[in-house]
Amino acid sequence: MKKIRWGIVGCGDVTEVKSGPGFQKARDSELTMVMRRNGELARDYARRHGVARWTDDAAELIGHPEVDAVYIATPPNAHKDYALMCAAAGKPALVEKPIAPHYEEGAAIVEAFRAAGVPLFVAYYRRAMPHFLKVKQVIDAGTIGTPRTVHIGHFEPPVQPGPGGALNWRVDPAVGGGGIFVDIGCHAFDFLDYLFGPVVEVAGYAANRAGLYAAEDLVSAAFTFENGVHGSGEWCFTAHRAFEQTRIAGTKGEVAFSFYAPHPVMVTTADGVTEHAIGFPPHVHQPLIQTVVDHLLGRGECPSTGESGIRTTRVIDIVLQVFGKRTN
To answer: Which pLDDT belongs to residue 322?
Structure first.
């Protein structure tokens, strides 16, 4: 095999810029087919993005002989069904994050691929973006000494209703397993897992203070990592303004960065403050997609697998269990 031919199940908003073009622009990668339950929307996507085939039937796409691997880009509540279809068909899959709404579903997906001997990846793309690899480089080089603590602060104004007062599925626990904390807060836990190893202890509190939807809108957590780093975090999604920053303190300095905005990575040591203005690529998934392609072609290893992905879902389950929406 000299090229990986991709199919997308669920060609919605995330595939328009963030991910979809990356499958066409990555080296030795090609997007050959897309699927959406609304066939007209699938056909429109294929036309606009120059994709040869489209369908409204996931089984047709997954079983197509000119699809080598599948990107599952649906909301989380549909991940398991499509992923199990891929495993049964022997097709490698890249599943959107989080891998599933709850740990048990994610573990079932991982086990199915393990039993089938088929590669499984999760779209935690920050593990491959240059902006975040700079943070890893700073820590691995010992620039801030031995890391001791990490703190996440993430605040956003309330989600605004759409046409007719409809709320985004991202704040519907039945679809995503929780609210904004689950949808995008998972990125922070996953990347910190990449830096420090698995979380070995975690406790959390969650509540809904504004009553705008059923999911949590206020979360706090404390956690420790395999390497001994202690962490804490606060997430408030009914704040008066948006502000988000993560700070890692070590024995010789600290590094501060944003998970969701291309602000410079700030490194503070006894020598002063150094800014690394790297920014985000046009298609943020593309660097990770390249690692998946290289992995499947036998010339590299993808850093975001099913095994790493379910660790993050387990942590989130524990943080939210007091809220009564999840189990660990």
So the answer is: 77
